[in-house]
Amino acid sequence: MQTILSVDKIRDWDKYTIEKEPISSIDLMERASNVFVRWLIENRTHSDNQILVIASKGNNGGDGLAVARLLIDRAYDVDILVADIQINSTPDFDTNLKRLTEKRIKIEYIQKNVKIPSFEKYSIIIDALFGSGLERPITGYWADFVKALNNSGKSIYSIDIPSGMYADKPADGEVVKCDHCLSFEAPKLGMLVPDNAELIRNWVYKSIGLHSEYLNLIESDTFYIEKNDIKHRIRHRNRFDHKGNFGHALIAGGSKGMAGAPVLAARACLRTGAGLVSALVPDIGYGIIQTAAPEIIALSGFGDEFLTAVPEINRFSSVGIGPGMGTNEMTVRFVEDFLNTVKVPVVIDADALNIISVKKDLISKIPKKSILTPHPGEFSRLFGASLNGFERLKLLKEKAKELDLYIILKGRYTAIASPESILYFNSSGNAGMATAGSGDVLTGMITSLLAQGYTPLDSCLIGVYLHGLAGEIGTSHMGMSSLIASDIIDNIGNAYKNLVGMV
Dihedral (C-alpha) 490, 318, 434, 264: value to the nearest 10 degrees? Predict the structure, then answer.
């Protein structure tokens, strides 16, 4: 798992590497700049070589000067503009400045209140104004400079972080809106919150060789989950296994006009590998689910248009509740009875969450270690509004710990909070998955993994990643605008094969 660190800890990691490798700070800067240049050359979207590097006098600016020199050495046409923002420059900036002057490379300076230059001649602008250590907003003249840069229509590449964006808190001034950003060693938390979506359109992270031993010396509570973190968690099937080895899952939901939601959840549950899947739906949905998915056992007699009665649910290995069930008064009583009865692992989503958000006393009745899967709106209804994405993540961790639950906050980088107050961000998925029923599919997948005997944490991590990967595969065939929830289900098998082959 890739650890996500605060700005202070990243700075300490740099220092630790310098001391323990050992390596000088200027040589570490050179290493980082080489990583950036290789990435830029591999990923630039323009064929011509007209590049402008904009730097200030800090270490991020030092990175910019080193990047400019390395590009010039590779025969790129590079202009350098140093923004004279701060009085004192850093030693590593000065060293890189000297290396450029020794090569007789021309450097232009811009000072406060002069006419902002035109960026017309450039195809690529490299942003090295401010790094992750910025502690105050960009205002005044330099805010106008950044606005002109953002309005230039040029392709902007930021080094480590877009200038003006904070790594650990909301931006409060003007920010460079970059098209691409390479974050050094690890993602920044600010790259994972929706608040910054307009500031950073695409980002990747790459290692610059910071000393890995440092991570063993600190406590980490925030991680970024990728393919290799999931592969080893998935179990392979034994040749003598039978359906009884993979659990019996129950999906409870549906109501008049919303019978499709439990169908999606139950199909996803079965496709993710549960040995048996039953669907508890009102009688109005009985024929629908039998026709749509003949492999699924349909339970009837527990309500006509809404679920009103709870069957013997503790005989199941796991239960997912909520998709399409509505918030009818009878359904509210059903959820109350359900929570007073259930003792097996449970996944709570959609209307079940909405009912609980109105009847807050039901929260205490949720079995410990259960899994909630709210989107941001449902999360706010459950636990209150947040001022921004950072505050919401803080509340997410607090509630998971307080309630002894796993809470999955759905989004582009879905966040999973554990009862131990650890936060995991998912890397898979794309905007094509913003489609009706996608959340129902996720509910079914996680319920399936619980039924198969995976721990709640592994059920969350595997389910969320597999869901996103299935969406990516579906999008590669259908395109983002045309993807529907059934396409995600249809590619769960391909996602498994992509991860670990035949399981």
Answer: 50
> So what's the pLDDT on residue 135?
87
Q: Which helix (H) or strand (E) holds 297?
A: strand 297-299
Q: How far apart are CA 483 and CA 471, in angstroms?
A: 8
What CA–CA distances, in Å, run from 127 to 74, 83, 143, 462, 501?
Answer: 19, 11, 14, 37, 42
End-to-end CA separation in angstroms for the chain: 23
Q: DSSP character for 200?
A: B
Length, in residues, of the chain: 503
For 210-224, the DSSP string reads: --GGGGGGS---EEE
* Residue pair 396/423 in contact by the 8 Å Cβ criterion: yes
Pick from 223, 188, 219: which is nearest to 461 by CA? 223
Instruction: Give tens-digit pLDDT for 393-404.
Output: 999 999 999 999
255 Cβ partners below 8 Å, 6+ apart? 282, 284, 285, 305, 306, 307, 324, 325, 326, 328, 331
Phi then psi dihedrals of residue 53, to 5 deg: -105, 125
> Helices 350-358 and 329-341 sit at what angle, rounded to 10 degrees?
90
* Residue 340 to residues 153, 314, 366, Cα–Cα distance (Å): 59, 12, 8
Distance CA 191, CA 8 (A): 17
Distance separating alpha carbons of residues 308 and 283, to the nearest angstrom: 11
Checking 178-182 for CB contacts under 8 A at 24+ apart, the result is 178/127, 179/155, 180/43, 180/155, 180/156, 181/157, 182/35, 182/36, 182/39, 182/40, 182/157, 182/158, 182/206
Is residue 369 within 8 A of residue 456, CB to CB? The reply is yes
**Parallel, antiparallel, or unpaired: how do β-strands 276-280 and 406-409 relate?**
unpaired
Amino acid of residue 362? L
pLDDT per residue as tens digits for the range 118-177: 999 999 999 999 999 898 999 999 999 999 999 999 999 999 999 999 999 999 999 999
Torsion of CA 163, 168, 173, 178, to 10 degrees: 40
In whole angstroms, how far apart are CA 344 and each of 271, 306, 315?
Answer: 21, 23, 8
Q: Tell me: the pLDDT tens digits for 381-431?
A: 999 999 999 999 999 999 999 999 999 999 999 999 999 999 999 999 999
> CB within 8 A of 319, min separation 6: which ones?
249, 250, 251, 252, 313, 342, 344, 345, 346, 347, 447
Please state, as a whole number, how many other Cβ atoms lie within 10 Å of the Cβ of residue 95.
17
3-state secondary structure 400-433: HHHHCCEEEECCCCCEEECCCCCEEEECCCCHHH
* Domains of the chain and any CATH numbers: 2-219 (3.40.50.10260), 228-240+321-500 (3.40.1190.20)
